[in-house]
Specification:
11 helices, globular, binds 1,3-dihydroxyacetonephosphate, about 250 residues, 8-stranded parallel β-sheet, alpha/beta
């Protein structure tokens, strides 16, 4: 059975005091589902968050990392550095990284390799822009993002890959893909995986939806058969809202 996952991507929000306050509020929440719960605070607060949440139901994960082991990459953080503070999962390929930091499929393939080589789990993000969808090219775009960054991997690697479909037009806009649009794309993604790796692998990979998931729409989106959870931005910054989404399965 593939896992249900709800991950909160805090993006560049919350300083140390705000991180501590939100974590306290999260610790007061009760999980009523089997979903795995993760939060991705900003890099400066990962260690604090890890310690505050050790032994709880919430895993602390990173928003990004560099592909190199170490060296002259000013400002960057490696997989080993994340591992050394207890962080074993990393989000890669978020559309904001692609858009503002020029991350390409080719670069992301190297990051994925580096994370997997260290035994980390990767939440790999991709999704089309509005113009792509208007032109009817959403499947072509998503298919090529997945193939370019992931299809050099062997089948076993997918045990440590979670996919996150995040249509760019639905991120932070309040506009969400309809449950049917999400289901259609997730089914396409799973079929794309099955073509390359077979049904057994495709059936085991969790595919999350991200883009304006809120307590009010989570249940309907998560009810779709190929939607295995969510990557949550804005609503993850409020403990009540985030757990309402966690408990929406
Ligand atoms: P919002 O939930 O704010 O639309 O953000 C989604 C997202 O980008 C999660 O990574």
């Amino acid at each position: 059975m593939r896992k249900q996952i709800v991950a909160g991507n805090w993006k560049m929000n919350n300083d140390l005091a705000q991180t501590e306050a939100l974590i306290s509020a999260l610790k007061n929440q009760t999980k009523t589902t089997d979903a795995e719960v993760m939060i991705a605070p900003t890099a400066t607060n990962l260690w604090q968050a890890y310690n505050a949440l050790k032994g709880t139901q919430i895993e602390v994960i990173a928003q990004n990392m560099h592909f190199a082991e170490n060296g002259a990459y000013t400002g960057e953080i490696s997989a080993s550095m994340l591992k050394s503070i207890g962080v074993n999962t990393v989000i890669l390929g978020h559309s904001e990284r692609r858009e503002y930091f020029n991350e390409t499929d080719e670069l992301l393939a190297k990051k994925v390799d580096a994370a997997l080589a260290k035994g980390m789990r990767v939440i790999f993000c991709f999704g089309e822009e509005l113009a792509d969808r208007k032109a009817g090219k959403e499947e072509a775009v998503v298919g090529s993002q997945i193939k370019n960054a992931l299809f050099h991997l062997n089948a076993a690697a997918f045990q440590n890959i979670v996919l996150a479909y995040e249509p760019v037009w639905a991120i932070g806009t309040g506009e969400t893909a309809s449950p049917e649009q999400a289901q259609d794309m997730h089914a396409f993604i799973r079929a794309t995986l099955a073509d390359k790796y077979g049904n057994d692998i495709a059936d085991e990979v969790s595919i999350l939806y991200g883009g304006s998931v809120k307590p009010a729409n989570a249940e309907e989106i998560f009810s779709k058969p190929d939607v295995d959870g969510g990557l949550i931005g804005g609503a993850a910054l409020n403990a009540d809202d985030f757990f309402a989404i966690v408990n929406a399965f």
